[in-house]
Amino acid sequence: MSATYLGMPSFPEAAGEALHNVTLRANLRHATHTIRDKRARAVAELADWAELREAGKQIKNRTLRHLDRYLEQLETAVTEAGGTVHWAADAEEANRIVADLVKATGEREVVKVKSMATQEIGLNEALEAEGISAYETDLAELIVQLGDDRPSHILVPAIHRNRGEIRDIFAEKMANWGRPAPDGLSDSPAELAEAARLHLREKFLRAKVGISGANFMVAETGTLVVFESEGNGRMCLTLPETLISVVGIEKVVPSWRDLEVFLQTLPRSSTAERMNPYTSMWTGTADTDGPQTFHLVLLDNGRTDALADEVGRQALRCIRCSACLNVCPVYERAGGHAYGSVYPGPIGAILSPQLRGIQSEIDASLPYASTLCGACYEVCPVAIDIPEVLVHLREKVADQGGKGHRLEKAAIKAAGWVLDHPAALAAGERAASRTRKLHPKRLPGAGAWTAARELPELPAESFRDWWKKNRT
Amino acid sequence: MRVALFVTCVNDALYPATGIATVRLLERLGVEVDFPAAQTCCGQPQFNTGYRRETEPLVRRTTRAFEGYEYVVTPSGSCVAMVRDHYPKFGETSLPSRTYELTEFLVDVLGVTDVGAYFPHTVTYHPSCHGLRMLGLGDRPRKLLDAVKGLELRELPGAEECCGFGGTFAVKNAEVSAAMGRDKVRNAVSTGADVLCGADNSCLMHIDGILRRQAVPTQGVPLRALHIADILASTEEEPYV
Ligand code: SF4
User: Fold this and answer.
1) Which positions in chain A touch B61 (Cβ < 8 Å)?
2) Among A126-140, A208-222, A442-456, the least confident range
3) Measured in angstroms, how far is the CA atom of residue B203 from the centroid of ligand 1?
4) Residue A411 has pLDDT above 90, yes or no
5) SS3 category, A246
């Protein structure tokens, strides 16, 4: 995955920073709580939500089981419709393919539709290294790009920013990238949106190459689908002469009929809308309309590894709605940057370690970035059992050993022996009670516990002993 | 009726009063209670931290300890969730259907909501993630609390949000855990109640630890965390002390 995040500190360390940033926490809390309440209302309107959720899960499961077949079908259909399909095993290969395609057009500028896949591979940075400027056109992505920042949310990448901060970024940075912000720009949403519109319009009209991702790819017809709210994506998809789409291989669905389910569940889960304002679909090229050249880059980048894991593969069902982020109490406090990936929140905690492996400090810490409260599972429109995958990945991290885990394993083993010998347990409890003034502070992990909390007072007698005295 | 009490390791070692209250309550309702001494821990802490192999002997031990009992009752929602959701993964399928969380047992099996309790306090209820989302306890605890004489129930804002305990999360991600706990405490204090009640002592241990560190007074009376069994066991003759 993207080189941007290599060498990230582990989750607990990175989360600590966000916890001390009062503005960031307030921005996040406000935004996530507003959208989670709206989502709940939008979902409650559908009487068959449970069935739609199950249908989404089944469609994705079946597709993943026969992924090779559907991808080949997709390739045939795209090719027949006039497009060209490229296969990329990893980020480097995908970036090279795209850079070569752009260079072949002779252009030095591209406009981009918001896309997780291109962020995952660090495409903008790779293009920059080749002398190509990639302009983000989604409003929130624009804020992140202008602010030289990293996205912190799947759907609202600039969720950690408030209006005042956005105004300052626009006023300071827009001029470096094209049309400057109007003089005397205020922080009213209407004025900010207008400034972005003017800035972007100039780019849409000039660009000869557009780059996108896709929410879905339909195997039977070779159609790509993008859901969006602002319409900027549609400008990028229709105005340029060349369109390059970089899409993860798990985004394929077998047929048009399958879209019926996701057209209902995705917008309600992500933006709490009954229907997203813009749904763009394109199939290859057409002589009279839209881009004359179309390339589809199918991205693996760790996905087949995830697919090989029977428990973990359910993460590939994800439709990137971000509902799980908005209900996650850990995300709300730690912020999106702490996850060290373009995929933050609960889904990031299970997806990143699967795509990247669990060798780095950040990836080994992600499976523990959850209380397993289950709120993410409850809202997920494709019923990904995120807590189950987290525990499964914890097993792998614990098995791999490394920092802290050897000690932990020894402690768990020792405790396991005691717990398998009730007489030893009773003796231990008695000893602890006798020395209860001294004992607790020496328990493993007590330091982290007592930094913010008191330890419970040890009782004079265990339940076991009370029972013996009073009931036998 | 005869039931086996699964007191759980946390209650056994740290909160024996909750176990004693459960025994008193069930006996008062005419239930004969056994305590199979071979029981120790359901294995949840080990399992959730990623030590599946180390969990296996505890799954076998717990299952064996309760062989032959039609009903196994425990005042710990998270341990019931462990038994129900994860024991089948170890091939143990008989214990899950016989294991009941205390409020579930009272309402569903005994069919009572008024257990004849007396507890003259204002109380707010924290539902705990396991009880709320995995067991689907719903309004059972509320119904039981509503019927307690002298008790005034106050709505807890953000009740469905996790308190931040999460087993080893509380030490592995101590800062985030404590931040979540402090928000829970703030919400509880805002109700003006003098007791925060729950059905899981592990969550309560975390919340209580923060409460005692902060020592927040509510209308002069410091808020304290208390297990629902302690409240339901309390009567006019033998009030909770
Ligand atoms: S895991 Fe589920 S809830 Fe989270 S982003 Fe993916 S589809 Fe949405």
Assistant:
1) 419-420
2) A442-456
3) 27
4) no
5) strand
Sign of CA dihedral B15, B21, B26, B32: positive
pLDDT-based confidence at residue A290 (cuts at 50, 70, 90) = very high
Distance to chain B for A371, nearest Cα, Å:
4
Encoding tokens for residue A77? 């259909």
> Element (H or E) spanning B125, and its range?
strand B122-125
pTM: 0.94
Cβ(A384) – ligand 1 distance below 6 Å: yes
Out of A19, A409, A466, name the one closest to residue B176 (CB): A19
Cα–Cα dist B173/B218, whole Å:
29
- Tell me which long-range contacts B155-158 makes (C-beta under 8 A, separation of at least 24): B155/B124, B155/B191, B156/B124, B156/B125, B156/B126, B156/B187, B156/B188, B156/B191, B156/B196, B157/B187, B157/B190, B157/B191, B158/B183, B158/B184, B158/B187
Nearest CA to ligand 1 atom 6: A318
Burial (CB count <10 Å: 0-12, 13-18, 19+), residue A19: middle
Instruction: Verify whether the Cβ–Cβ distance B168 to A378 is below 8 Å.
Output: no
The alpha carbon of A315 and the centre of ligand 1 are apart by a number of angstroms equal to 8
Mean pLDDT of A106-114: 96
Q: How many CB pairs under 8 A join A and B?
A: 177
What tokens appear for A298 in the block?
Answer: 């199918």
Q: In what order do the strands lie in the sheet with A223-228?
A: A252-253, A216-218, A223-228, A278-283
Q: Is A355 helix (H, G, I), strand (E, B) or coil?
A: helix
Atom of ligand 1 nearest to the CA of A320: 5
Which atom belonging to ligand 1 lies closest to the Cα atom of A379?
3
Give CA–CA dist A50/A265, Å, rounded.
10
Please report residues of B whose CB lies closer than 8 A to that of A16: 175
State the pLDDT at residue A431: 78
Compute the distance between CA of residue B80 and CA of residue A394 in angstroms, rounded to an integer. Answer: 21
Closest CA to A380 of B133, B47, B88, B132: B133
Could you tell me if B152 and B122 are in contact, meaning their C-beta atoms sit under 8 angstroms apart? yes
> Does A445 have pLDDT greater than 80?
no
Nearest atom in ligand 1 to A154's CA: 5
Alpha-carbon distance of B207 to B184, in angstroms, equals: 8
pLDDT digits (tens, 9 = 90+) for A241-281: 999 999 999 999 999 999 999 999 999 999 999 999 999 99
Q: pLDDT band for position A4 (50/70/90)? A: very low
Exposure string of A149-171, with b = 16+ CB inside 10 Å and e = fewer, is: bbbbbbbbbbbbbbeebbbebbb
ipTM of this complex:
0.94
Preferred mutation among B9, B175, B186, B205 to probe A, highest tally of A CBs within 10 A: B175
B231 Cα–ligand 1 center, Å = 40
Query: In the structure, what pLDDT confidence band is assigned to residue A217 with cuts at 50, 70 and 90?
Result: very high
The alpha-carbon radius of gyration of chain B (Å, integer) is: 17
Burial class of residue B93, CB neighbours in 10 A (0-12, 13-18, 19+): exposed
Q: Closest by alpha carbon to B204, among B238, B231, B173?
A: B231
Give the residues across from B34 on adjacent strands: B4
Q: A193 with A166: CB under 8 angstroms?
A: no
Nearest CA in chain A to B62: A420
CB-based contacts of A44: which residues, under 8 Å, 6+ apart?
Answer: none
- Pick from B12, B166, B173: which is nearest to A463 by CB? B12
What is the C-alpha to C-alpha distance for residues A393 and A364, in angstroms, rounded to an integer?
Answer: 9
Nearest CA among A123, A77, A73 for reference residue A100 = A123
CA distance to B9, B21, B22, per residue, from A458 (Å): 13, 17, 19
Residue A263's contacts (CB-CB under 8 Å, 6 or more residues apart) are A275, A279
CA torsion sign for B38, B39, B40, B45 is positive
User: pLDDT at residue A373 above 90?
Assistant: yes
Query: Can you read off the two tokens belonging to residue A62?
Result: 């079946």
